[in-house]
Amino acid sequence: MKRLAASALILASLTGCFRMSVRSPAPRDGAPVSRMGVSLVEGLTTSNVAAAECRHGLSRVDVYWPWWSPFVYAFTFGIVAPLRAEYVCAKGPEASDGGETEVPPSVPGL
């Protein structure tokens, strides 16, 4: 029983928090938008941020585990891990002639 308790304690101490942040030098346009997603089967599939409403790209993206995510991860034996993605759209260049500026198409997800 002591060996099982020690193994459980060591296993619990090896878990960590997941957080990924991406920042660009583009100025921010508006408030952060938050979306929930999941990572399935030990990270083989993951949620992605596809922000179609951001015409000029993203200024900031943060993807992290909410405080309750490790409980769901442990309960499902690593099959499901909830993720929260927060992003801020980038401010576009100001048009000098008042017309609509050309926006390149987004790169499709892999």
Please state the structural category. Answer: alpha+beta
Shape: elongated
Number of strands: 4
What's the order of the H and E elements?
Answer: HEEEHE
Low-confidence stretches: none
Largest sheet: 4 strands, antiparallel
Radius of gyration from the CA trace? 19 Å
Query: What is the number of helical segments per DSSP (H or I, 4+ residues)?
Result: 2
The proportion of strand residues reads 25-35%
**What is the CA–CA distance across the termini?**
47 Å
Major β-sheet strand ordering: 1-3-4-2
Mean pLDDT: 78
Helical percent range? 10-25%
Key features of this structure:
110 residues; elongated; single chain; four-stranded antiparallel beta sheet; 2 helices; 4 strands; alpha+beta
Could you give the topology of this structure?
Blueprint: H1 2-13, E1 19-23, E2 33-40, E3 58-64, H2 69-75, E4 80-89
Antiparallel strand pairs: 1-3, 2-4, 3-4
Kindly describe this structure:
It contains two helices and four strands. The protein has helices at 2-13, 69-75, and strands spanning 19-23, 33-40, 58-64, 80-89. It has a four-stranded antiparallel beta sheet with strand order 1-3-4-2. The radius of gyration is 19 Å and the shape is elongated. The N and C termini lie far apart (47 Å). The model has no long low-confidence stretch (mean pLDDT 78).
Give a short overview:
The protein is α+β, with helices and mostly antiparallel strands.
